[in-house]
Write a structure and sequence with these properties.
Layout lengths: L8 H9 L6 H19 L2 H4 L7 E4 L6 H12 L3 E5 L15 H21 L1 H16 L4 H9 L10 H16 L7 E8 L17 H12 L3 E8 H16 L2 H15 L1 E5 L14 H17 L2 E4 L2 E4 L4 E6 L11 H5 L3 E4 L5 H9 L5 H10 L4 E4 L1 H17 L6 H10 L1 H5 L8 E4 L1 H13 L1 H7 L1
Parallel strand pairs: 1-8, 1-9, 2-5, 5-8, 10-11
Antiparallel strand pairs: 3-4, 6-7
Helix pairs in contact: 1-2, 2-4, 5-11, 6-10, 14-16, 16-17, 16-19, 19-20
Length: 459
C-alpha cells in the first residue's frame, strides 16, 4: 500500500472512486482533510500545535456512502479509526456510555495496531527462537546438556559427545524446516484464559472503563494458569512464535507510539449525530438528555485530555467526521458551540438508477462480482446480461421511491431475492453456465415490486 502521506487529494479521490460511486463533493472534502494531516506535520512546532483539524458533517439519507467513505479513508491513512453511533451516549448521570469511552476505544485500537506492526518486525527473530523451543520438545536435551547450557558452556566443554548434542538435533531441524514433522504430536504447556469474576457497575462518568481495569488487576493478583496439552507441530509452532514475539515486543514503546498515533492521526466517525440534536428547539423529556450529550461531547471535540489505562490522551488533533440523515432536524439544531467545531458541511445526494447500475458493476468489490465469485465455489458460471443489470437498477429505484429510501442497501435485498433459486439449488446447476437475463429479473422481481404491499415486506 502507498503511504497516505504521499497521496495528493486527487490521488485519494481516485482511491475512493474504486469503492464508492458518486458523492464527489464528500470525497473532495475528506481528501483535503486527510492531506491536511500531513501538511500540519510539516509545519514548525510552535505553529503546528495551533492548527486544528477541520471536522466534517456529512448530511444525507441512509445507504448513500457516508460510512463507507470514512472507513475507506481510514484504511488509506493507516490510522486508528473508530465508528460509533452518537445515540449510544447518554448525559452524565444516566445509565449508558460515557462520551470519553470512545477515546479509550480509539487508544486501544491504536495499541493493537502498533503491537501488530512491532510483532511483524520481530517475526523472523521470534521464529528462530520458537524453532529452538520446538526442537527442545522434539529432541529433549539430556540432563548433562541442560547443565552445560545453564553454566554457559558449550557441549564439548561439558564433555557431551558432539554427535549426541548436535547431530540428532540438526537432523530434526532439517526435517522440521522441510515440513516432514508437521503431523507429529508434541506435548507442551499452554496458557489458559482466566475465568475472572464479572462485576457490573452502574454509575456516572468514567466508570465504563473500570471493567478492563479490574480485569488487569485480577490478572496480576492471580497467576496465569498453564495446561499441558498435546498439539501438532504446526499448532505448537504458531503458539511458540506468538509467545516469543510477545517477549520481544517492548510494551512501553508500543504504548508511547499508540498514544502519539491516536493524538496525531486518529479518526472518529460519529454516526447518527442527528439523533442527539434537539428537534425544533424542544426542551422537554428526551430533548434535555439529547442536549446534555451534546454538552458532554463538546469538550472532547474541542480538545480535552482523557484518562485511559495507557496514559493521558489529548483529543485536540483527532479528526471527527459526523454523519446523519437530518430528516426531522437540521445541523443548526445542534448547540451552537458544537456546530462551530464542525466547520465543513457536505451534502450527499440520494442515489438514482444510473448510480445503482454503476454500483452493481464498477467498484472493485461490486455486488455482481461478489455473487459471481460465490457461485463459482459451487462450479456455477454465473453471468449477467447488460439489460438484466439495468432492470435491477430500475427496480431498486422504484422500490426506494414507493417505500422507504434505504439507498444502495436495497441492492443487497434485490440480489438475494433474484438469486434465491440458484443459491438454494446450487448443486443442481454445478458445471453449468447460468445467465441472468432481463426476462428472468422481471419474472423473479416484477410481481413483488409492482405491489406496494408486497414490496414493503419482501423488498
Amino acid at each position: 500500500m502507498i503511504p497516505a502521506h504521499s497521496l495528493t487529494p486527487k490521488e485519494i479521490v481516485m482511491k475512493l472512486d474504486q469503492f464508492i460511486i458518486g458523492q464527489d463533493d464528500a470525497k473532495r472534502f475528506v481528501a483535503v482533510a486527510l492531506r491536511n494531516r500531513w501538511r500540519r506535520q510539516q509545519v514548525a512546532p510552535p505553529l503546528r500545535d495551533e492548527i486544528a483539524p477541520k471536522n466534517i458533517i456529512m448530511i444525507g439519507p441512509t445507504g448513500v456512502g457516508k460510512t463507507e467513505i470514512a472507513r475507506r479513508l481510514a484504511n488509506l491513512a493507516q490510522s486508528p479509526f473508530l465508528k460509533i453511533e452518537a445515540s449510544k451516549f447518554t448525559e452524565v448521570g444516566y445509565v449508558g456510555r460515557d462520551v470519553e469511552s470512545m477515546i479509550r476505544d480509539l487508544t486501544q485500537l491504536a495499541v493493537n495496531m502498533v503491537k501488530k506492526e512491532e510483532a511483524a518486525k520481530v517475526k523472523e527473530k521470534a521464529a528462530v527462537m520458537a524453532e529452538e523451543r520446538l526442537l527442545d520438545l522434539l529432541v529433549p536435551p539430556s540432563s548433562l546438556t541442560m547443565a552445560s547450557k545453564t553454566m554457559g558452556m558449550s557441549a564439548t566443554e561439558a564433555g557431551v559427545p558432539v554427535h549426541e548434542s548436535d547431530s540428532t538435533r540438526e537432523k530434526f531441524r532439517q526435517m522440521l524446516r522441510e515440513g516432514k514433522l508437521d503431523g507429529r504430536l508434541v506435548e507442551m504447556n499452554i496458557d489458559q484464559p482466566q475465568n475472572l469474576p464479572i462485576v457490573e457497575i452502574f454509575s456516572n462518568s468514567g466508570m465504563d472503563d473500570m471493567g478492563s481495569g479490574m480485569k488487569d488487576m485480577f490478572g496480576k493478583m492471580f497467576p496465569q494458569k498453564r495446561e499441558r496439552r498435546k498439539l501438532y507441530v504446526t499448532e505448537a509452532r504458531e503458539i511458540l512464535e506468538k509467545e516469543e514475539a510477545e517477549k520481544l515486543i517492548e510494551m512501553d514503546k508500543v504504548t508511547k507510539l499508540a498514544i502519539q498515533r491516536t493524538e496525531q492521526s486518529g479518526i472518529i466517525f460519529l454516526d447518527e449525530i442527528d439523533k442527539i440534536a434537539s428537534r425544533q428547539g424542544g426542551v422537554q423529556g428526551a430533548e434535555v438528555s439529547r442536549e446534555g450529550v451534546q454538552r458532554d461531547l463538546l469538550p472532547i471535540v474541542e480538545g480535552a485530555t482523557v484518562t485511559t489505562k495507557y496514559g493521558m490522551v489529548k483529543t485536540d488533533h483527532i479528526l471527527f467526521i459526523a454523519s446523519g440523515a437530518f430528516h426531522l432536524c437540521k445541523p443548526s439544531d445542534l448547540v451552537p458551540e458544537l456546530q462551530g467545531r464542525f466547520p465543513i458541511r457536505v451534502e450527499l445526494h440520494p442515489l438514482g438508477e444510473e448510480d445503482f447500475y454503476r454500483i452493481l458493476t464498477e467498484p472493485k468489490n461490486a455486488l455482481i462480482k461478489q455473487y459471481i465469485a460465490l457461485m463459482s465455489t459451487e462450479d456455477i458460471d454465473l453471468a449477467f446480461e447488460e439489460d438484466a443489470i439495468r432492470e435491477m437498477a430500475k427496480i431498486a429505484t422504484e422500490v426506494n421511491q414507493k417505500t422507504e429510501n434505504i439507498g444502495a442497501r436495497r441492492l443487497h435485498t434485490i440480489m438475494e431475492r433474484l438469486l434465491e433459486d440458484v443459491s438454494f439449488n446450487a448443486t443442481d446447476f454445478a458445471g453449468q453456465k447460468f445467465t441472468v437475463t432481463a426476462e428472468y429479473v422481471k419474472k423473479q422481481l416484477r410481481k413483488i415490486s409492482e405491489s406496494e404491499d408486497l414490496s414493503r415486506y419482501i423488498l
